[in-house]
Amino acid sequence: MKILVTGGCGFIGSHMVDRLLNDGHDVIVIDNLSSGNLRNLEHHKGSNKLQVVIETISDFAKIESHFKGVEKVFHLAALADIVPSIEHPMEYHNSNVNGTINVLEACRKHNVGRIIYAASSSCYGIPDKFPTPETAEIRCQYPYAVTKYLGEEYCMYWAQVYKMNITAMRFFNVYGPRARTSGTYGAVFGVFLAQKLNNKPFTVIGDGKQTRDFTFVTDIVDACVTASNNYQIAKERINVGSENTYSINRLVELLGGEITYIPKRPGEPDCTFADTKKIKQLLGWSPKVSFEEGVSIMLDNIDYWREAPLWEPSSIAEATKDWFRYLGK
């Protein structure tokens, strides 16, 4: 097939490109490199099956023509992270909401047969029930979560009104090789691996007993590809998780190192844990990579984080001051 991946130079997107090329498809990538990196696709250099278009999804006129003849779209492009979304909400709306509408309209104009939207489990905020089902109340805590959920809502609306075949996959705590190393204070793996490389203590938030449904990136990709092959699940919202939840203390134990504790942050749940009954029922899908195996793979690829910013308690406090200012009670 001819398949288009938005955000294909990014963390999840580059692994999606790996999978699609390995499956024999022709792949078009659209990425503005705001957080993606061409080096993530360097191992495909010279491939006649891959075309990389450096454009932003926020500009419909620049991207629309590339959807011609495309059979499937994996829409993964988005601005991520909590702090910058608090600081720059309009930029996040433009990328994650307006950009998504542009992708949907390009798909509609060129009759794309199947669309997978990368939704976010952050829409659940601080839920009441664990594991958390797709029917849980939406409780977005910060602009990133709101914009990703609005993008999901537009997908469902376009699916309903324009009869487009769209499925939203709600990702839980994705980790793996090529996770972004630059930019603002963010995902725990990037922070911890840079600290380990520099022989610094891990900055653990609160008491470290909080748990996360860490889901390995190739499992996320596999779930999306599996969903894309099922044309009977349009207008569905589906959790993608690891079938378990793991404490930050357990992660530190696997990584090995000293700990320094920093204050717990407002707006963060004590637990994220996907209810995966729906994806099992609809797709017969289950994750393949255990947490222990995934962490081992991360350690094997630790040199990728050698140029990542080194975060320490003082720099974290400065970077997250708006987090406490706006999300604190």
Structure report:
The protein has 329 residues and is α/β, with parallel strands linked by helices. Helix content is 37%, strand content 16%. The chain contains 12 helices and 13 strands. The chain has helices at residues 11-22, 60-63, 83-87, 89-109, 143-161, 188-197, 217-228, 248-255, 277-283, 291-300, 313-319, 321-327; strands at 2-6, 26-30, 50-53, 72-75, 114-120, 166-171, 174-175, 202-205, 211-212, 215-216, 236-240, 246-247, 259-262. Helix 4 (89-109) runs parallel beside helix 5. The model has no long low-confidence stretch (mean pLDDT 95).
CATH architecture of the largest domain: 3-Layer(aba) Sandwich
In CATH terms, the superfamily of the largest domain is NAD(P)-binding Rossmann-like Domain
End-to-end separation in angstroms reads 51 Å
CATH class of the largest domain: Alpha Beta
- Shape verdict: globular
Q: What name does CATH use for the topology of the largest domain?
A: Rossmann fold
Number of helices: 12
For the residues shown, what is the average pLDDT?
Answer: 95
Number of strands: 13
Largest sheet: 7 strands, parallel
Order of helices and strands: EHEEHEHHEHEEHEEEHEEHEHHHH
Radius of gyration: 19 Å
> In percent terms, what proportion of residues is strand?
15-25%
Structural class by SSE content: alpha/beta
Low-confidence stretches: none
Strand arrangement within the widest β-sheet reads 3-2-1-4-5-6-11
Number of domains: 2
